[in-house]
Amino acid sequence: MKQKIIIAFSVVLLLFAIFLIARDLFHSSHSMTDASCCGDDFTSAKQVDSTLIGYKRIRIIETGLKNLTGIAVNEKGDIFACGNMQVSIFDAAGTKTKTFNVDSVPGCIALSGNDLYLGSGSHVIHYDTIGRKLAVWKPYNNEGYIASLAVNGKYIYAADALNKRVLKYSPDGLLLQDIGKKDSITGAPGFVLPSLYFDIAFGSFNDLWVANTGRLQIENYTSNGHFQSSWGSSSFDNSGFGGCCNPAHFAILPDGGFVTYEKGIDKIKVFDPTGQFLSIVAAAGSFKGNSDFQLGNNHLVKDIAIGINGSIYVLDAYNQINVFRKKNL
């Protein structure tokens, strides 16, 4: 009975979170970071110089699914997609090989070997990759929203957007630490999250990177939560991030570079390990042409994942998985 109550509460909380995200998508938020020259629909900011596009799309996987929320890619190139109370697995060629149901609505996903982790409401739920549910972990509190997950060695990190904390868990689900408090001594600015986009990833030095979206920057922490540095600025130029809260999603390439996505502006960009702009992967018009623009200030990208060969996997608003590879490779 208690488990049913927890599941029901998680579903209600996730639906509320979806409402907040939808409100953010369909109603432009004015703040000191908005630029009046671009208008509420960011039309001019969406424009792309084709000479800056450094990637080509090599595959589109039509999932045939609805309401997908996240993707992850394992070392074999298998793609795991979550959403709509299920997880589906596709091989490297894009053929669906397995689907299993889950008993909550997942909002994000992460992999580590044969372990699979889902964020649902305030909870992290541990499965194996064949679909067996292993555990539901105790949340930071019952009013959280897990927006992103990342694995570093034996530890699992969960970005709780409502509590504005990154939570560090042991392999057996023990909450070890919460990261993100403002600290004048270390210079940690504290997370400012005007919406529920709150992405995290690990770099090649086992360092934690966090999108502090309200500050329009990506911040670097040690695995134990010590603030080290940040990069990013408020700008509609390709060198920065525009809008009220970006980047909405990001991932880290094998060479330490960053792939970022800005909602509203609808650009996927690549930066080098120091945060210098390099190229564009895709933008509004890249997925379904004019349909992208007709969506208005919508979120064309739901998630980004990276393959071990540096390929970029993009889950778009049409529930397609797009695979991009650097040109001239």
Task: Please give a handful of descriptors for the protein shown.
329 residues, mainly beta, Neuraminidase, 4-stranded antiparallel β-sheet, 3 helices
- Average predicted local confidence, pLDDT: 88
Number of helical segments? Answer: 3
Question: Could you say what the CATH topology is called?
Answer: Neuraminidase
Summarize the amount of helix as a percent range.
Answer: 10-25%
Order of helices and strands: HHEEEEEEEEEEEEEEEEEEEEEHEEE
- Spatially, the strands of the biggest sheet line up as 1-24-23-22
**Strand residues, percent:** 35-45%
Q: Judging from the principal axes of the Cα atoms, what is the shape? A: globular
DSSP summary, beta strand count: 24
Low-pLDDT segments: 18-39
Domain count: 1
Task: Please provide a written account of the structure.
The protein has 329 residues and is mostly beta strands. It has one domain: TolB, C-terminal domain (Neuraminidase). 10% of the residues lie in helices and 40% in strands. The protein is built from three helices and 24 strands. A four-stranded antiparallel sheet has the order 1-24-23-22, with no helix packed on it. Strands 2-3-4-5 form a four-stranded antiparallel sheet, with no helix packed on it. The longest helix is centred in the first third of the chain and has 25 residues. It is globular. About 7% of the residues have low confidence.
